[in-house]
Amino acid sequence: MTTQERLDFEREHLTQRLAEPELLKEAIPITTHYGSGSEHIELAVPLGKLRRGGHVVAPDKDQGKKIVRLLAKHPGFPKPRVIKSSYYSSSWEVVWGDPPPFDDRATDGTSETIMRGIHFGYTDEAIAKFVVPQRGFTKKRRIALELIARLGCSLRTRQAYPPDAR
Question: b/e map of 99-111 (b: 16 or more CB within 10 Å)?
Fold first, then answer.
């Protein structure tokens, strides 16, 4: 897949999932390089009204620091920082915005996954599809949507960064 095809795929993927797809207009392509010579590209999406934080994966701390310097030059990426990833065992993450409303290392599954999806500004349906990947409107998906609505109500009304910090 070419770099442009990968970016197009990433943009389409996020367009279908973000509650505020217009944020993609300000997204920044991030390219990282792995020891095997492979290249990975993804979009760093800025904060919005519903999107409280963001992240991209970096294969090592040095590349993470370069990404931080790049994001710090753009609005919508407050407090970019490099952290050791708790999701990607051998990688680092560059995160920006509010810290997630939970400790990544203490996740039990569904409710933390839902809170993470809300934090990153995904739609309720996108979160439900991730939590319950089966097709159709199943009982599990209905329950997941109800949980998303309960958790989302409080998380989406939390105080965000001031508008001038975006």
Answer: ebbeeeeebeeee
